[in-house]
Amino acid sequence: MHEFLAQLVNGISLGGIYALIALGYTMVYGIIGLINFAHGDVYTLGSFFALTILTALGVSGELHGVALVVDVAIALIGAALLCGIVGVLIERLAYRRLRNAPRLAPLITAIGISFILENVMQIWKGPAPVSFPAVVPNPSVMVAGVAIGAQQFLLVGLAVVMMVALQLFIHNTRLGRAMRATAEDRDAAQLMGININRTIMLTFLIGSALAGVAGFVSGVYYQSTWFFNGFGAGLKAFTAAVLGGIGNIAGAMLGGFLIGIIESFATWKFGGQWSNVTVFAILILVLVFRPSGLLGEAVFERA
Amino acid sequence: MLRLERVSKRFGELIAVNELSLSVAAGSISAIIGPNGAGKSTLFNMVSGIYRPSAGEIFFEDARIDVWPTHRIAAAGIARTFQNIRLFSFMAAIDNVLAGEDSHLHARLWDSLLHTPRQRREEKAARERARELLRFVGLEGVAETYARNLPYGSQRRLEIARALASRPKLLLLDEPAAGMNPREKGELADLVAAIRERGITVLLIEHDMGLVMRVSDEITVLDYGERIARGTPAEIRNDPRVIAAYLGTAVA
Questions:
Q1: What per-residue confidence (pLDDT) applies to B248?
Q2: What is the helix (H) or strand (E) element at residue B203, kind and residue range?
Q3: Is the same domain home to B72 and B179?
Q4: Going by DSSP bridges, is the β-strand pair B218-223/B201-205 parallel, antiparallel, or unpaired?
Q5: Cβ separation of A190 and B74 shorter than 8 Å?
Q6: Residue A104 is part of a domain; what is its CATH number?
Q7: CA gyration radius for chain A?
Q8: Which CATH number fits the domain that encloses residue B223?
Q9: Do B103 and A193 touch (CB under 8 A)?
Q10: Considering CB atoms only, which of B88, B113, B166 is closest to A193?
């Protein structure tokens, strides 16, 4: 029972990262029907940006008090903002001109962008994993006999706050409404006076910024990052989006946490080498019985 | 207000609209009629910016609009409804109307993320206007219902409310009476008249001759992409070319 709870906590932490990344996949798919394979690399880029900012601030170890709050906030917001800008640039330079091309063209382009980002990051920080400073102290509290670290609270807390904010944004604001309308019928949205280029840009900005947040928290959590991290994490997050129902925002969150928990339990019960097998086997089963995912697809917003 | 000058649209070999010239006077209700395939919907698609004309020019209040991006045409004051309803079906009725107001709202990303007083004020005023429009088309009770769950006639009226939300000067109605029963058609005629009372020019495509004859100031008849007649309902009713080409016994 103790181990069960411990694995659950692990799984939820891991799931928070997947959920944040999955949101970007699902938002972009919802609005332009593209599986943005470069998204996982934007997540890695987030950890690189955060690391660079922390280094520039002279941070190399644990922080306390005001410095903790200020430096973490700068690194977090900086990584999110820079990732958002990268996402917008990718859309503007690579995807926009292919918007009315056959679907395979932007898909192949996305894979190409992914390779470019991976190679740029490899040149930037080298081919080996890089250590990430343990900026956030990690005292733990015992809950039902399980130690939960402050970093885990931070990670899950941030993920949940981001998701709630995203839901409020999409449901209660002018720009969120424009995103839902564009996702459902791009031409009609345009005819109602909605600037769809700006709306699509905004979707990339928000999705990529969330990946930047995920990149930062994963750096803090694992205390390391690697240019190739985004490939595996991106694939899992994409799986999470499909599991929840691609295009469905609540589905991406649910899927992210589920994948994290499944992976964590699979590692515990069958060993690490079986975790991917288990995750993808469950994905296949879900898709066989519920092809549109757990919460249903193709609806930008339903929850 | 709206002027088309020798506008053509070709799709490969097919000439959907052929050197059509047309003008719509401000404050009028005009109708375009003609058999299926006469080019009516193509005409609407060119005016609203979905298609670019192959030749010719379109002017709206003396500005040449056929080269503008679609959302700019909408923002300039041309709104439309669709022959096959294209509401945002997974959005509440009021959100559909609010989406129509988009080009008149100013909240930026910053306002939305921080929930600034400016964003709150603007959103509140926008909601009040949206409710007023829902009342105007007779949908005040279903503001929070998903568009897809509304009955057919209500969906047609919601499309009109959404189009009105963009504060158009010119409203294009594409077969608004399609699928309506006689009572609904009567209400629609009243609604079209009330829209004109608000100072909005109306241009409609419609097959229902009863409705067209009742509401229109002027009727243009298209056949094979060309204008074969134009006049008041009384003139059109008695035009031998129109009767031959299209109306047949439908007017009787």
A1: 57
A2: strand B201-205
A3: yes
A4: unpaired
A5: yes
A6: 1.10.3470
A7: 19
A8: 3.40.50.300
A9: yes
A10: B166
